[in-house]
Structures are given as structure tokens and as C-alpha cells.
Write a structure and sequence with these properties.
Number of strands of chain A: 34
Strand content of chain B: 25-35%
Number of helices of chain A: 9
Largest sheet of chain B: 7 strands, mixed
Radius of gyration of chain B: 21 Å
CATH superfamily of the largest domain in chain A: Spore Coat Polysaccharide Biosynthesis Protein SpsA, Chain A
Structural class of chain B: alpha/beta
Largest interface: A-B, 17 and 16 residues
Radius of gyration of chain A: 23 Å
Number of domains of chain A: 2
Largest sheet of chain A: 7 strands, mixed
Helix content of chain B: 10-25%
Helix content of chain A: 10-25%
Strand order of the largest sheet of chain A: 5-4-1-6-11-8-12
Oligomer: heterodimer
Chain lengths: 427, 361
């Protein structure tokens, strides 16, 4: 019997996803037409022995999350529950805190995944790999290859090429260690909790020691219960014959910024070709012209002279007028694009309006297409004092007047613009 | 009567358009600049026009032969081997201009205005002096040659070229009437083969009068001013011959459209747009404050403001062009690009957006 745990973080996490994360928790942001989390859940529910999916995070219970959970339970016919941490406990602390829930029913193994990754989820392959490597209690990390320079932004794994054992693990090193990086998707057995428990004990002892010397104790990061899988567990387990890496060359990307949401959409839309062809729009009579892969929600209202794609997702109730061009963009629910407007490399927020002949354009931050191992950059917002050109984001309920251009800008929610803007954050 | 038009120079400020076509033949509001001037001169009684040229004179010659026939006048070309400024051409054309005692017009070829030639002539004959210089009032005098003169007597104190501090807002409008007597007094030292500017002393102390001209005036020698001049000219067309302008649904303000142009559905054109012969505008195009030259093609849903689209150029779908973008002849702009203030040389293909103003060679 199997389970899956998805770590969904909380409001203090995902700040790079603002202003979109003001409206909806990042794990529920639609990527290729469905909430980010749904891709994880779909992959998990395909496994025949999957009995339960647990979401762990520190969001307060909210409407969207509850609605998502009940819909997902109905659609996938599997138990899905949200376990709320009382504080941010780190990637290891959360699962340790809820270990009883995870272990109830005695699963032989369980997956742990970060919500903010986009992946082909080779879960069956990871299960087979685990049976063939180490003993019945081994743990598996999903790894992929990055280029040398970018590997420094991830957890780096040094492996024994013959046995696939993890010999060394470093999270975000400052010098090059390995080009195999941690994808944030793991397969654990119940034994993992012994190792986390050991670290927890040690932390408590350290805390005790420090408390006799310092009075303050309330800073969250100094809690004993905050445990990070990567720095605290993997680094210690490396080279002990317990941790293995399963390397994949299928698609994978982090989703940290809005730009990476568009890139992830592209990856999933490509996958729909084989997994969900019904989700891809086709060129039909009376419908808009599509190029490449396009997702259009059935309730969207689109003029037949519009041209959409490649890599476009259109949400519920969106209205698109005559002669509109949308490319490499996500149009969220209820937005309206008036005649002849042009939206490129942008995310148009819920309920926003774009006037006639307006141009909303961003700069893609895609990985170098000539490098098969290049990953999307997590760009800093500013460089050399200037805003780095990136995807244009319109928050919810933003109104763009006719005939203006909004270029490489971020517009916060509920804003009515009255002129063109370039390379700016508009509060 | 005769007129001398100072065509001179290479028209470098109106590049890239002047890389293909000599400046006097560039169409301003669907008619070559030179023709605006020549037709006005002919209306005032001029029967012989002399063009002082130094660049691409063969092309000009051919075109002028055709106009000679059409207008029933004589057009001569006075060749400068190098640009000679203002005095030089006068000296060079001296023979032609002084064969009788009639006064003659002299005109800077970049000037577009509501040409007051008949009035100027009357004024000149009335005051009986040797020369009449036209001045006009402008908002930004530091771009031009300022004339400081006494309002009542018309006596000229001095000329100041492009003053950095405010001297006066009256500038030399580039239009003159001179009598042959004045021309004979120009001292010219003619080198064996060349006449150059420094050899001519243009003596401004001949007796002259100021004619103050108050209607629209523009030096259209550079793209920004070309477009401003177009707006002024179209406004004057609305006042004097409104039937020439195109009106109706989809047309805003003053719009001039050649009858052979084709305009698609759901376009909004204007205000202040000139569409040349054989131009095609596809569906859903929005054009404001632009000149679209002969044979150009603007594809659907594009948005243009303050641009000059060169002959036979092609602008793709969903393109946004603004901020005095000038496309030379036969330029192709690919679909979905953003072109901001680009100056594009002829026969160039643009495949990437130009978000900040620059020159594309």
C-alpha cells in the first residue's frame, strides 16, 4: 500500500510569485489549465496501490483550498487530506510532525513531493528502481542533470555510477560539486522517520544548550522541530548505503516565479499530447485559429478571428475579441481581451481587461534551448539597479486602456492604468 | 518670372527615405515636396524654375522633364559639384537669373507652408527695394536662423543662426524675392573649376524688406518635423479644400487617402494620416499621425502612431510601431513586433522587437 505527501508551503513562501500569490495560494495556480497541484495528484492516482494523498503546509484553511480538495477527491476517487502545520516546520519537520498520519494503514513506502515543481512524475519507475537498489528500506531521490553553472542553485548529488548510491549531497553549494540535481521528489520508507527523529533529538539538545546561554527562543527557525530534509537529512545519509538517486531525463522544472509558470505550462501542454489530448484545443469551424499547444476552458468565449498559441492557457469565462493575438501566455479566469489586442509572454490576472489594440508584452526567461540541461533561471527582480526584463504580470482586476503598451512590467491588483508603461512595477 | 529652388545637400536628415529617392521627390501628403512648391510658384506667375542641385540630379532631371510638360513651364538644373549652401547656388545661377530685370523668387526646398508668393510679389513691387525676406514666428527658434529686425521699418539688425539663448522668435522662413541688381553685386571669386561657399560674400546689406508671414510653416527636413508639417498641411486642406479629405466611419480627423489605396474592415484611421497610392491596409489596423508611402502594406490588427512607412514596405500582423519610427524603402517588419523609434534603412528585414529608439542598418 502506498501513500503520497505533497509539501505545499504557506503564505510566507512563494513571495517570488507575487502579485499572483496574493489572490490564490501558489500550489493552486493554474498551470496548463489546471491547478499546479493537480498534476501531482493525477500522477499519484495512476498508481494502483495509492491509497491516500496528504497535503502538508501552513496555509490557513481557505475556500479555494477546500474547494480544490473536495473536487479532487471526487474526480480521482482517492482520499486527499490537508494537514496544517502549526508553524513552518521545514521540508522534514512537517512530515515528521504528521508521521502517525502518514504511517497509519502501514504503507510500505510513500512519496514526498514539493508542490512547486513541474515534472513528468516517473513514479512507477522510481518504485521499480527502489526494489532493485539497496535493501527494503532504501530511500530514493529523483535527480536530473543540470548544466554546471546552474547546478549551484539546486541540491547537488554525487552518485556512485555503478550502484546509484548517493555518496555526497550539498544544498546550493557555492562551488561546483555535481551536475546531478535534486528534483524535489522522493520515495521514502517508514524508516526515514528514525533518521529524522535522530536529528530532532539532536536539535533539542542543542536548543537546551543554547537556551542556558541565550534567552530568546521564539524565532521560528530556532525551533527544534524545524528540520530540512535536504540540509539536515540527505547530507547526513549520503554515503551510508541508504540513499539512492534515480536519474531521469524527462521534463522537469521548478516553478518559483511567474515566468517559470509559463514555461511549466508549455511542458505540461506538450505532455497533454499523449496523456490528455482532450485538453488541447484544435482548429475547428467557428473557433479561433490555434498554433501549437493551446488549452481553452469550455466556458471561454473566443472570437473566430483570434489567433492563439503556441503555449497559451485560457481560463474559465474568459472573453477574447476579434483579431486578438495571444502567445506564450496565461489568461486567468474572467479576463477580457478586446479587439485587436496583443498579449505576448504575459500572465493576465483574474477579471482583468485589456483595451482595443493594446499590447501587453513580457520578456521570456526560458532556459537556453540549445542546452539540453539548461534550467529556467530564478531571476532576481532587479539587476544593476534596474528591473530585469521579465514576464509581464497583471494582477487581478487590472484595467489596461486601449492602444497603450505595457512592456516588462508588473501591475498589482485592482489598478486602472491610464497610459503606457515599460520596465516598471506599478503599485 | 523665375524662381531658384535651393535643393542642394544630400538630405541626410531625412534618411533613410533619402537613400532611395532625392529629397525633393519624397512625397509629402501624396505629392513630391518639390511639386508643392513648383505648383504654387506657377500659380504666382513663375514660368522658369531653376533647381540648384548637387545630389542624384539624374533622377531629378528625369522627373522634372515630365513636370515641364505637365505644367507648361521650363525647369533647369544648376549643378553644384558639392553642396554650396545658400550664396553659392545664387552665384552659380547668376547667368540664368540676371538675363532680364524681373525680380525672382528664391526658395529653400525644405519649406512647406501656405505659400504666399502672389502676396510677396505685390509687397516687393510696392516697396521697390532690392530684396524681400520672409520671416515667420515659431515656438522653438533655436532650431533655425533667427532674424532680428525693426518691426515698423523692416530694417534688419542682424541674423543669428540657431541661438542657444532666446533672441527672437522670428526666423528666416527660407523664402525670398531678389532683384537682379542685387545679384550682380555679389562678389564671387571663381576658382578655375569650383565655386565654393567661402568664395562668395553674400552681402546682406543690400536694401531689403521683411515680409512677415503668419500662416502655417514648417521645415520638413527631418522626420519629426515632416510629421508635424503633415498635421499642419492637412489642417489647412480641411479649411481650404475639405472635399480632398476622407471621411466616414473608421476615419477620424484629417485623413488624406489616395484613391488607389485599399483599406480593410474595422480599421480606425486618423487623425492626421496620409495614405499613398496602392497602399493596402488590412482589417483591424489603427493608424494615427502617420505617412504611409506608395505601395506599402500594413497587415491586420497592427497599431501605428507617428511613423513614416517607406515605399513598398511591409508591416506584419499585430505590430506596434510608434515614436517617429521611419521605415526606408522595401523594409519588412515581421509579425507581432514592437518597434519604438527605429530608423530602418532600405531593404532591411526586422525580425526582433526594437524597444528603445535606434538605427537599424
Amino acid at each position: 500500500m502506498l501513500k503520497a505527501v505533497i509539501l505545499i508551503g504557506g503564505p510566507q513562501k512563494g513571495t517570488r510569485f507575487r502579485p499572483l500569490s496574493f489572490e490564490v495560494p501558489k500550489p493552486l495556480f493554474p498551470v496548463a489549465g489546471v491547478p499546479m497541484l493537480q498534476h501531482h495528484i493525477e500522477a499519484c492516482s495512476k498508481l494502483p496501490n495509492m491509497k491516500e494523498i496528504l497535503l502538508i503546509g501552513f496555509y490557513q484553511p481557505n475556500e479555494e483550498l477546500n474547494r480544490f480538495l473536495s473536487c479532487a477527491q471526487q474526480d480521482f476517487k482517492i482520499s486527499i487530506r490537508y494537514l496544517q502545520e502549526y508553524a513552518a516546520l521545514g521540508t522534514g519537520g512537517g512530515i515528521y510532525h504528521f508521521r502517525d498520519q502518514i504511517l497509519s494503514g502501514s504503507p510500505e513506502a510513500f512519496f514526498v513531493m514539493n508542490a512547486d515543481v513541474c515534472s513528468e512524475f516517473p513514479l512507477p519507475e522510481m518504485l521499480d528502481f527502489q526494489k532493485e537498489h539497496g535493501d527494503a528500506y532504501s530511500f530514493v531521490i529523483l535527480g536530473t542533470t543540470a548544466n554546471r553553472k546552474q547546478s549551484l542553485n539546486y541540491g547537488c548529488i554525487v552518485e556512485n555510477e555503478q550502484t546509484d548510491e548517493v555518496l555526497h549531497y550539498v544544498e546550493k553549494p557555492s562551488t561546483f560539486v555535481s551536475d546531478i540535481i535534486n528534483c524535489g521528489i522522493y520515495l521514502f520508507t517508514p524508516e526515514i522517520f528514525q533518521h529524522i527523529g535522530t536529528v530532532f533529538q539532536k536539535n533539542q539538545q542543542d536548543m537546551l544548550f543554547y537556551r542556558t546561554r541565550l534567552e530568546e527562543q521564539s524565532n521560528g527557525w530556532h525551533r527544534a522541530e524545524v528540520i530540512r530534509l535536504e540540509q539536515d537529512i540527505f547530507t547526513a545519509l549520503a554515503g551510508q548505503g541508504k540513499l539512492y538517486v534515480y536519474k531521469t531525463d524527462r521534463f522537469w522544472s521548478q516553478i518559483k516565479s511567474a515566468g517559470s509558470a509559463i514555461y511549466a505550462s508549455r511542458l505540461y501542454l506538450n505532455q497533454y499530447h499523449t496523456t490528455h489530448p482532450e485538453r488541447l484545443a484544435t482548429n475547428r469551424e467557428g473557433g479561433p485559429k490555434t498554433r501549437g499547444h493551446v488549452y481553452i476552458h469550455p466556458t471561454a468565449n473566443i472570437d473566430p478571428t483570434a489567433v492563439l498559441g503556441p503555449n497559451v492557457s485560457i481560463g474559465t469565462g474568459v472573453t477574447i475579441g476579434a483579431g486578438v493575438r495571444v502567445r506564450e501566455s496565461i489568461i486567468l479566469h474572467g479576463a477580457t481581451l478586446q479587439d485587436h489586442s496583443c498579449v505576448l509572454n504575459s500572465i493576465v490576472g483574474w477579471g482583468s481587461t485589456i483595451g482595443k489594440w493594446a499590447r501587453v508584452e513580457g520578456t521570456p526567461s526560458d532556459p537556453n534551448p540549445n542546452d539540453p540541461y539548461a534550467k529556467i533561471d530564478s531571476e532576481t527582480l532587479f539587476r544593476d539597479g534596474k528591473l530585469t526584463p521579465s514576464i509581464t504580470i497583471l494582477g487581478c482586476n487590472v484595467n489596461i486602456p486601449s492602444e497603450v503598451i505595457i512592456l516588462n512590467s508588473i501591475v498589482l491588483p485592482h489598478k486602472d492604468l491610464n497610459r503606457s508603461f515599460k520596465n516598471q512595477i506599478i503599485l | 518670372m523665375k524662381a531658384l529652388i535651393l535643393v542642394g545637400g544630400y538630405g541626410t536628415r531625412l534618411r533613410p527615405l533619402t537613400l532611395t529617392v532625392p529629397k525633393p521627390l519624397v512625397e509629402f501628403c501624396n505629392k513630391p515636396i518639390l511639386l508643392h512648391q513648383v505648383e504654387a510658384l506657377v500659380k504666382a506667375g513663375v514660368r522658369h524654375v531653376i533647381l540648384a542641385v548637387s545630389y542624384m540630379s539624374e533622377l531629378l532631371e528625369r522627373e522634372m522633364r515630365a513636370q515641364e510638360q505637365r505644367l507648361g513651364i521650363k525647369i533647369s538644373l544648376s549643378h553644384e559639384k558639392e553642396p554650396l549652401g545658400t550664396a553659392g547656388p545664387l552665384a552659380l545661377a547668376r547667368e540664368l537669373l540676371t538675363d532680364n530685370e524681373e525680380p525672382f523668387f528664391v526658395l529653400n526646398s525644405d519649406v512647406i507652408c501656405d505659400f504666399p508668393f502672389e502676396d510677396m510679389l505685390r509687397f516687393h513691387q510696392q516697396h521697390g527695394r532690392e530684396g524681400t525676406i520672409v520671416v515667420t514666428k515659431v515656438e522653438e527658434p533655436s532650431k533655425y536662423g533667427v532674424v532680428v529686425y525693426e518691426g515698423d521699418t523692416g530694417r534688419i539688425h542682424r541674423f543669428v543662426e540657431k541661438p542657444q539663448v532666446f533672441v527672437s522668435n522670428k526666423i528666416n522662413a527660407g523664402m525670398y524675392i531678389f532683384s537682379p541688381a542685387m545679384l550682380r553685386r555679389i562678389q564671387v571669386r571663381i576658382d578655375a573649376n569650383t565655386i565654393s561657399e567661402k568664395h562668395c560674400h553674400f552681402i546682406w546689406n543690400f536694401q531689403k524688406y521683411i515680409y512677415f508671414f503668419n500662416c502655417f510653416w514648417m521645415d520638413i527636413g527631418q522626420p519629426k518635423d515632416f510629421l508635424t508639417g503633415m498635421c499642419m498641411y492637412l489642417q489647412s486642406v480641411r479649411q481650404q479644400a475639405p472635399e480632398r479629405l476622407r471621411t466616414g466611419p473608421g476615419f477620424l480627423g484629417n485623413v488624406l487617402v489616395d484613391p488607389t489605396a485599399v483599406i480593410g474592415e474595422n480599421c480606425t484611421i486618423g487623425p492626421n494620416v496620409t495614405i499613398g497610392a496602392g497602399v493596402v491596409l488590412e482589417d483591424g489596423v489603427r493608424v494615427k499621425r502617420c505617412t504611409v508611402l506608395k505601395g506599402a502594406h500594413i497587415r491586420s490588427h497592427s497599431w501605428l502612431e507617428s511613423c513614416i512607412v517607406g515605399w513598398s514596405s511591409s508591416v506584419g500582423q499585430w505590430v506596434r510601431m510608434e515614436n517617429v519610427t521611419v521605415l526606408g524603402e522595401d523594409v519588412i517588419v515581421n509579425d507581432e513586433l514592437y518597434i519604438n523609434g527605429a530608423n530602418v534603412l532600405p531593404h532591411k528585414s526586422i525580425a526582433d522587437s526594437v524597444p528603445e529608439p535606434r538605427i537599424i542598418m
